[in-house]
Structure formats: C-alpha cells, structure tokens
Amino acid sequence: MKYAINKNKIIIHSCDEFNPKHIFECGQIFRYQKLENGDYQVISSDKKAVIHQNNTTYEIICDLKDIYYFINFFDLETNYTKIKNQLINQYTFLDKAITFGYGIRILKQSVLEVIISFIISANNNIKRIQASIEYICLNAGTKNQDFYAFPTINQLSMLDETFFKKAGLGYRASQMVQAIKQLQDIDLQYLQTLTTQKAKDLLISLSGIGPKVSDCILLFGLNKKDVFPVDTWINKVYQIHFNNQITNRQTIRENLISTFGTLSGFAQQYLFYWKRSEK
DNA sequence: GACCAGGGCGGCC
DNA sequence: GGCCGCCATGGT
Fold it and tell me: C1' nearest to CA of A250: which nucleotide?
C-alpha cells in the first residue's frame, strides 16, 4: 500500500484498505481507544500511536523513533486489495463480509502481549478482556509518558494468582501464573523461526492455551496466515454458510483451512468481524 | 435466572 | 483418540 513519511507521521492515501475502526474493532487487539475527537489511540508493547483522519487521508502519529515499528505493525507493505480480490474471486459468499470490513489489516503485534491477552480471552467477552488487560498494564507495566506499557516477562513473573483474580481473570488466574512460569523458559525469538505446526505444538503445551487460542497467537503474533481460529462466532458462520451437520471445532478448522489455504487468517478476520457486528 | 462471551481442562470411555 | 461437565465474572 502507498504511504509517505513526514517526520513523526505516516500518511496513508488509500482509505479502501486502511480503516482504523475496522482494524481495531475487528477483535485482533484490545489496547485501543476511540478518543473524543474521533481519533483512535493504540498501544502496542511500550509504544503508542494515534490515528487521525485528515480529509481523504489517514495519519499515523507516533514518536519519531517508532515510525518503522508502526510501519511494520500496520503491515503497510502488504497489498490488501490484492488479497481481497483473490478472496472474493474464489469465494463469492465472502463479498458481504469483505465489503463490511474493507479496511481491515492484520496487525503484527508483540508475541508476549498476544499470548497473555488471548489466554484471558478464553470463554470471555471483549469488554471484560480489555478491562483485565488494562488492569494488568496499569498495575504492572512501566509508565511511559501518559500511558502504561504492556508488562515485560520479568514484570509478569512477579505477579501471583491473587493479583490476576483482582484483574478479573477468575478461574484463568492460576492458568496465567503457570503459563508465565512456562514462558520464562521459552525463547520467543526462536518461536518466530518455527513452522506453523511446530509453533502451535509448543504454544498448546502452555497452560491456558488450546487449539483456538494458539491459532490467535499464530495469526496475530507470529504472522502465520495458514490458521483459522474457530470461536463461537466462526462456529455460527460455519453452521449457516457451510455445513450445519458438522459441530466438531477441530473438523471445522481443518475444513476451513483446506478451503482457504494461506489466505485462511484473512478470511477468518473478515468473517469474524462481519458476523459479530450483527449483534 | 438462564444464557452467553474470541475455550481449556480433567475425567471418563 | 473423542465426548462432556465444569469453570469466574459481568452483561442481557
């Protein structure tokens, strides 16, 4: 996608493949906020950006030193028009979902942040997930100007089950403590080098991470697109548009991946955002 | 007051 | 291996 850099701003002209509402509200990230003036603010790891609309362009505004972090974060080098065309041409029933969420981009987030966030997401709703994550950042993250960074693994390792219960994790609190303990022995850089299946096997061995949460981590944190997180919403989509006889989530996942291949992750996000918007 | 939310886990077969 | 009940919490 075409973009320009002007000091501490990234300027985006093609609004048909960049829409902050779609990008942030499609369920892939939790630390974002719509400000009173209509701008969106997002925090990733220890960095913050504000997205401002200026007539027919969007501006990503951040610290000068973070410009290239956010170019990568927003996946600006990827041509989403091409991806959307491939999806619509092959699977015409995706038309409505892609028209609805035309400006989605899959963010390249911090792996640690995605792991912790999606352990919290299990059998939970987005509002509560956001509140829990904010509590954790506010009480365990480093303050940086006017916001709190996501805690490092060392900061997380200092927290106990009582803390996470106060954060609203409920029965996931003990899982979280255990997962953090396990994570201290895992090189997240090494995780990036693994194949999708090898990385999935490793992730699923962690406490609180199963088939669905591991797919989210692979998609949002490890840039793997040959995965298809099947949650309750994708389950509904599958019953209605594919096959209402099949209910086993593992089977649904395999069928969807064999259908969409390396475009699975993209198809999943358009379908999830579209279906969830109907409520 | 049951049902649901970006499910995972342990027990049972 | 697959199936099933349970699990905190807050909102409809």
Answer: C2
Q: Which residues of chain A have pLDDT under 70?
A: none
Report the distance separating Cα A161 and Cα A228, nearest Å.
Answer: 31
Residue A186 burial by Cβ neighbours in a 10 Å radius (0-12, 13-18, 19+): middle
User: What strands lie across the sheet with A9-12, from one edge to the other?
Assistant: A3-6, A9-12, A57-62, A47-54, A40-44, A32-34
Question: Which nucleotides in chain B lie closer than 7 A to a protein CB?
Answer: 4-9
Q: Output the distance from A168 CA to C4 C1' rounded to whole Å.
A: 26
Whether the Cβ atoms of residue A216 and residue A199 lie closer than 8 Å to each other: no
Distance CA A257, CA A279 (A): 26
Q: Other CB atoms closer than 10 Å to residue A265's CB: what's the count?
A: 23
Cβ of A211 < 7 Å from strand C? no
A198-256 tens-digit pLDDT: 999 999 999 999 999 999 999 999 999 999 999 999 999 999 999 989 999 999 999 99
Of A147, A168, A133, give the one whose Cα is nearest residue A48: A147
